[in-house]
Amino acid sequence: MKGFTKASAAVAVGIAAAISLAACGTTADAPGDGGSTGGSTETYKIAYQGPLTGSNAAYGTYSRAGIEVALADYAAKYPDGPKVEVDYADTQGDPALAPAVATDLINDPSVLGIVGPSFSGETNATGPAYAEAGLVTVSQSATSPALSTNHWATFHRVVAPDSAQGPAAAKLLTDIKGFKKVFVVDDSSDYGVGLGGEVRDTLGDALVGSDSVQVKDTDFSATVAKVKSSGADAIYYAGYAPEAALLLRQLRDGGYQGTFASGDGTVDAAFLTAGDFTDGTLLTFPGVLDAGDEFTKKYDALTVSDKGTIGAYTLESYDAAWVLLSGIGEGKTTRADLLDWVNNYDADGLTKHIKFSSTGEIEGASGVYYYTVDGGKTVSGGPIE
Amino acid sequence: MDFSFLFSNFFELSITGLVLGSVYALVALGYTLVYGVLQLINFAHADVFMWGTFVVAWVFILTGASGSTTLLGAAPYLLIALVAAASASGGLAMLVERIAYRRLVRKRALSYIILISAIGASFVLSETMGIRDKVVALIDGIINAVVGLFGGHIDIVGWLSDYTSRARGVTTLPLTIKPQVVFSAGNFSVRDTDLTIILAALIMMIGLDQFIRRTRLGREIRAVAQDPEAAALMGSNSTSVVSKTFLIGGIMAGVAAVLYQIKVGATTFDLGVVLGIKAFTAAVLGGIGNLRGALLGGLLLGVVENYGSALFGTQWKDVVAFLLLVLILLVRPTGLLGQTLGRARA
Amino acid sequence: MNHFARTAGDWISDRWATVGDRVSDVVGKRPVKIPLIIVGVALVYLLPILNLPIIATPESDFPTVLFTVTVYAIVAVGLNIVTGYAGLLDLGYVGFYATGAYVIGLLTAYHFAWPFLLVLPIAMLITLVTGVLLGAPTLRVRGDYLAIVTMGFGELIRITIRNTAWLGGTSGIKSIPAPQGIGDKSTGVFQIPHLDWSTGTPLVDLNRQTKFLVFGVLDATPYFWLALTALIVIIVIERLVKRGRVGRMWEATREDEDAAEIMGVPTFKFKLLAFASGAFIGGLAGALFASKAGYINPISFPANLSMLFVAAVVIGGSGNRWGAIIGAIIVAYLPERFRQLEDWRLLFFGIALVAIVSFRPQGLFPPGNRARAQRAARRAARDAQREVPVV
């Protein structure tokens, strides 16, 4: 019985604590609430959603470079505009980790727009939440074609989907470069299978064979044998840079002389500077790679402690961030206003003219370019038309 | 299933499979040696190998090797790298034993408890490599905080920037080794690098086999493997024997790292995950704890992966490898050669 | 150094054990126990609402993190049956987690549109069958061989899903519907405001209210309650099984398989039962994960996740369900709580694994029967010491 008294005391204390908490006021009567008309003293945020750590962290540093330059441009163009900060939210590019991050951003009322999500997988995992919250997203690099068929009102991207890049790559290899036999290899990733499938479907009779390797594979001898015995005069690799470099090297070591071509996933130092064997590689890219002198100058002038690195999708990240920032600069400081601003955006960006269709895709030209690798650098071959 | 492709390229697929299998076999040795003496899976071994591949790359950067050359032209660099990688991996393996194993083995902890300790050590090894830029920056900060008191500054981050750049990406050998054709058969040319890798692996395996059979340390290792208590009674210090066993496994991993770099020429901090599973599979396939089993298992796994890729497509090769393992374990529950190190004939 | 490390470790273990004894002396008394459990469980249910400052995760959504932690706890309880009770080292547990998740994905979204509550038991049953199918041929393999075979099966399941279009292939399954809720979609039966601590004192956050019981994409709290309820049900059932004959058979099999076999324990049958029960619970965890995530693809089920699961069970205390649950909290919660450590998280995790296992090889909370024996021994020693001056 004695024990029971102790326990009831504990319960009583618990209930008392709960009541005292309930009595201590609400956010509605707190000072400095978000609902007040603070004007330009208010600080707003745009957020980056994508990898900052983990094996895909490099994409995060490339995006950071674009976003930081855009932020500097914002300060220059709208000196009297509201103060804007960037919230870099790390998902490691993993769809399983992304929802907690996205929900946290949604619950922060000062976040008005998202640059990202960076990858297609995490976009699938977080798209419904952003749509329900009415928080606008502008992705710089999520290229899976199906993303724009989900009817998420908040989804936008400034990059051409793989359904534009795949056919363009096939066209480049057959029509422009005149190859008759093309072998297609993908890396069994969501991105690789999607892009590789588009290329295969468009190649038609020119497709002489295909194989699927795996991300993190380091030995491709069976694939090399398949490519050689197919008699292909060109091979298209749909996948990422590390495997592309190893595959190409092992193809050359195995005596294969044909042309190697690949897509946007390969545009990375891990491939470009892997060795002289990468010279002559054709790369398709749904955007502009050459940052240009003006952008580089602005990047060099940045004084922030971490300004990232210029790389793949840096310019697209700039464009995505600028679409959002210019809206805030024009006084669109609620989520609904900013979403409306993005939907009606119609101006030139760094990479292309930006105007979104009702599904969130860029309207107009496909915007796929091709490049040739020469001495570790990409040399533009112009748009694929 | 594409049988005609498999048969028309059988020779090429076999040779390239053997090359890959040689690397598996040398790494598998580390698992087998440790399992032989302790009956424990050394999960951190693949990361010891991964460190070896980085030491090779660093030696190339340090000696200023660049451009592209033949295997013979790269030989001087490779020899230095061999010594460096073997010492580094050997030392690291001993360190793993000291920190993650010794205390637990002495306490007679359950085997899967020690496995967790090894998994922890594996995380530490791979992540230290994966954030080496940040680790170096941290050390730089600490040292300069001290040096700064005396008004000096040491730019450690700057000195090491060549070695720490792209910590989470790919580190490529600055020198590309171009294989030379030794002879051709049909549409396949056998290359000097392939032959070197297979030969080097065979020589190392035979050497180790003889070492374990004939030397005093080899006898001691076998004695500890067979009966640690009896071995202790006979005057061998089992702690030191275990430590030396890790050392030998580490040295083998260092050699494997050099061969791997000849073949692949690039490495990443998370290389150990994939290669570790494969090498461990190879060790179990041949009969874990059995040196010759590791060789057989490694080579078999290498060629079977290639045949599987040829027949079903490369995306299925791991499935083929694991199904082979399960089938063999069902027929022979202790692997193909199934003896332990202790019971190996002397 | 060597000596120091050893003594320090022993000292920590001893202190820890003594504190544990004192706590259990007080709490262990039955009349106190029941109300305390009720208050404790209620507090856990209220965690996402209370949003306590130090516990809440600063950079990711707290209810979502709590949900993930609970799912990991379910996994740990299941794996604890396999590894802790039956002594089978399963390095491919993620395979069952994936199976449960994919059955939900396939039946509620990809091929059919069946309701969640109907598919949930189907998912668990299919995972159970998978466990039996994988276990039957492989459980004859002993000890460490089993580890590699199970690891192989975990990879096999992932690769097969990835390469098979009928299972969603590489692009995975999206638009998995949320479970059916109770009450009106926009308001729920009633609404519970969360607390907001940003000003230092707790305020009732009227902008953030949990609708009871509506499963939406923006608020993970109802999912957390669902998972927590599932966890409690699993624990109650598992406790009954463990205390009965089956539990003793598992223990006998784990301690000495040959001796158990000689004494007439059909060890294979009981190993298979443990493996299948573990699979069943793993399937439940996977199913909950899929219904909350709404999107699953093969890269969410890597081999590393199996290691993390085993690590949870072992550092918590293999063989003790509460230890396993605490282990799950450690591996799932701490990385989210300390997001600001960024890249250093995994390194610290590795160091922590080595350190915890090295100083407490039996885990932080070893199982009762082992701990009870040790405690009894220590208590006897303590009593003996006390008695000395009297004599």
Query: In the CATH scheme, what's the topology name of chain B?
Result: ABC transporter involved in vitamin B12 uptake, BtuC
Strand content of chain C: under 5%
The general outline of chain C is globular
For the CA atoms, what is the radius of gyration of chain B? 21 Å
Catalogue the unreliable spans of chain B. none
Beta-strand content bin of chain B: 5-15%
Specify the helix fraction band of chain B: over 70%
- Tally of discrete structural domains of chain C: 1
Strand order of the largest sheet of chain C: 1-2
Low-pLDDT stretches of chain C = none
Radius of gyration of chain C: 22 Å
Q: How far apart lie the N and C ends of chain C? A: 41 Å
Describe the biggest sheet of chain B? 2 strands, parallel
- Average pLDDT taken over every residue of chain C: 84
Largest interface by Cβ-Cβ < 8 Å: A-C, 52 and 58 residues
User: Using DSSP, what is the number of strands of chain B?
Assistant: 6
Q: Please report the total strand number of chain C as a whole number.
A: 2
**What is the residue-averaged pLDDT of chain B?**
90
Structural class of chain C: mainly alpha
User: What's the tally of helices of chain C?
Assistant: 14
Summed up, what is this model?
The complex is a heterotrimer of chains A (385), B (346) and C (391). Chain A is an alpha/beta fold. Chain A contains twelve helices and 14 strands.
Question: Can you describe what's shown?
Answer:
The complex is a heterotrimer of chains A (385), B (346) and C (391). Chain A is α/β, with parallel strands linked by helices and 385 residues long. Chain A has two domains: 40-160 and 289-351, Rossmann fold, CATH 3.40.50.2300; 163-285 and 369-383, Rossmann fold (3-Layer(aba) Sandwich), CATH 3.40.50.2300. Chain A has helices spanning 2-22, 57-77, 98-106, 120-133, 162-176, 190-203, 221-230, 241-253, 269-272, 292-301, 314-329, 335-343, and strands spanning 43-50, 83-90, 111-115, 136-139, 155-157, 182-186, 207-212, 234-238, 259-262, 282-285, 346-348, 353-355, 369-374, 377-383. In chain A, the strands form three sheets. A seven-stranded mixed sheet of chain A has the order 7-6-8-9-10-13-14, sandwiched between helices. In chain A, helix 2 (57-77) packs parallel to helix 11 (314-329), helix 3 runs parallel beside helix 4 (120-133) and helix 5 (162-176) crosses helix 6 (190-203). The longest helix of chain A is centred in the N-terminal third of the chain and has 21 residues, at 2-22. Chain B has one domain: ABC transporter involved in vitamin B12 uptake, BtuC (Orthogonal Bundle). Helices cover 73% and strands 6% of the residues of chain B. Chain B has helices spanning 3-8, 10-38, 45-62, 71-106, 111-130, 132-147, 156-159, 161-164, 192-214, 216-226, 228-233, 238-263, 271-286, 291-312, 317-331; strands at 67-70, 171-172, 175-178, 181-185, 188-191, 266-267. In chain B, the strands form three sheets. In chain B, strands 1-3 form a two-stranded parallel sheet. A two-stranded antiparallel ribbon of chain B has the order 2-6. In chain B, a hairpin with a 2-residue loop joins strand 4 (181-185) and strand 5 (188-191). In chain B, helix 3 runs parallel beside helix 5 (111-130). The model of chain B has no long low-confidence stretch (mean pLDDT 90). With 391 residues, chain C is mainly alpha-helical. Chain C has one domain (33-180, 215-381): ABC transporter involved in vitamin B12 uptake, BtuC (Orthogonal Bundle). In chain C, strands 1-2 form a two-stranded antiparallel ribbon. In chain C, helix 4 (94-110) runs parallel beside helix 6. The longest helix of chain C has 27 residues, at 267-293. Chain C is globular and about 60 Å long. The two termini of chain C are 41 Å apart. The relative contact order of chain C is 0.16. Chains A and C meet through helix 1, helix 3, helix 4 and helix 6 of A and helix 2, helix 3, strand 1, strand 2 and helix 10 of C.
